[in-house]
Amino acid sequence: MTKPLWIIHATQLATLANDKKGPRIKDAMSDLGLIEDGSLWIEDGVIKAVGKTSELEKQYADRQHEAEVVDAKGHLVTPGLVDPHTHVAYGGSREREFEMRLEGATYMDIMNAGGGIHATTRMTREATEEQLIEQTTKRLDLFLEHGVTTVEGKSGYGMNLETELKQLRVMRKLQETHAIDIVPTFMGAHAVPSEYKGREDEYVDLLIDEMLPVIANEKLAVFNDVFCEKGVFTPEQSERVLEAGKRHGLIPKIHADEIESYGGAELAAKVGAISAEHLLKASDEGIQAMAKAGTIACLLPATALYLREEAAAGRKMIDEGVAVAISTDCNPGSSPTTSMTLVMNLACISMRLTPAEALTAATYNAACAIKSEDKVGSLEVGKQADIVLWNAKNYQEIQYFFGINHVKSVWKKGKKVVG
Ligand code: NIG
Ligand code: FE
């Protein structure tokens, strides 16, 4: 049996605890459940008690000598960050495209010329499972160093059954061997593969008739995502893919209104998607529909910055009652980063979230966006002991100093993995 872990005297413990279930909206996004001089008692990877240090000292008076004690005086302690939208399991990299975009090419120009998602698809098809595991492991290690203890991971760089399965199996293996939790999403509808150019509907049929049943049968994914965008999948095609996924028990997610306003937010509400992603160009009607349907907006301000686009209307979405989560969108084209701290910084700077809202969006609401809020996203009794101790004394500080990794130590299921 491992020793209990006892964190004491945290100058600020942001528990994110709240009695209400489900994603937080409006003012509830600012309620961080703060405790001054806070303490956590952890056993077997699970949080057993949360409160003031003086309270836990009494509660565990007889057992203090058993514990490994961490003195967090001077530090902020938060839940492990949750990244609810990544494309982390891919082959190769695309640094030349970065230069091309700076020289004037657009993201869609590059993709339509066979680069972009197609380039990564070629590299992912060519990579062996071992090579993919090796490359993805490095990215997951970086996530941990940035305080991220749970990620969602999408397939979508296969776009044929063999390689989609390879990506999803790689994520399943890493889920067993790597400290990070990976929640898998099938995204065969990431683009229309080059060999189906001009036969888009046939590819949609292939997704529905041949890929989805196998993926669902092997229980390789929880969610089903589609890139609903002009020149990729129409709202009608996207709806077909998402409805088919639902029949197999996969929960819909949508890459929506990223490059152009295309009815993606409206579609997310209509199909009952758990979240809609990007939303840079979401319409007012779409935002209202999402608020009404309870669809979480998963906003990706690092992607907007990297594509030199104006970020999504995060402030407006929160004011209109949409629950907002944020994510790196870690991928080799539009957002090669694993820094959720940078994403929190940008959520404040480019979307005008407050520092408190940004932290909720990167923890509890992010967990809701991947249906994992019963286990992660807040520090509450019975939840996984996924914890970050920061080189900062309060939550404002981690958003105020920007472009800095303030993570000092990270515990995953009670085990120290960083610091
Ligand atoms: O979420 N927009 C579509 N998919 C990814 C980018 C993938 C890529 O460029 O490789 C995104 O930004
Ligand atoms: Fe994405």
Task: Summarize the model shown.
The chain contains 16 helices and 16 strands.
Which consecutive residue ranges, at least 5 long each, have pLDDT under 50?
Answer: none
Distance between the termini: 22 Å
Give the biggest sheet: 8 strands, mixed
Number of helices: 16
> Could you tell me which ligands this complex binds, including any ions or cofactors?
N-(iminomethyl)-L-glutamic acid, fe (iii) ion
Question: Radius of gyration, Cα only, in angstroms?
Answer: 21 Å
Q: Tell me, briefly, the overall form.
A: globular
Output mean pLDDT.
97
Tell me the helix content.
Answer: 25-40%
Describe this structure as you would to a colleague:
The protein is of the alpha/beta class and about 425 residues long. The chain is about 40% helix and about 20% strand. It has 16 helices and 16 strands. The chain has helices at about 55-60, 95-100, 105-110, 115-125, 130-145, 160-175, 200-215, 235-245, 265-270, 285-295, 300-305, 315-320, 340-350, 355-360, 365-370, 395-400; strands at about 5-15, 35-45, 45-50, 70, 75-80, 80-85, 150-155, 180-190, 225-230, 250-255, 275-280, 295-300, 325, 385-390, 405-410, 415-419. Strands 1, 2, 3, 4, 5, 14, 15 and 16 form an 8-stranded mixed beta sheet that branches. It has an 8-stranded parallel beta sheet with strand order 6-7-8-9-10-11-12-13. A hairpin with a 2-residue loop joins β2 (about 35-45) and β3. α5 (about 130-145) crosses α6 (about 160-175), α9 packs parallel to α10 (about 285-295) and α13 crosses α14 (about 355-360). The longest helix has 18 residues, at about 200-215. The protein is globular, with a radius of gyration of 21 Å. The mean pLDDT is about 95. The structure holds N-(iminomethyl)-L-glutamic acid (NIG) and fe (iii) ion. Fe (iii) ion binds near residues 277 and 329.
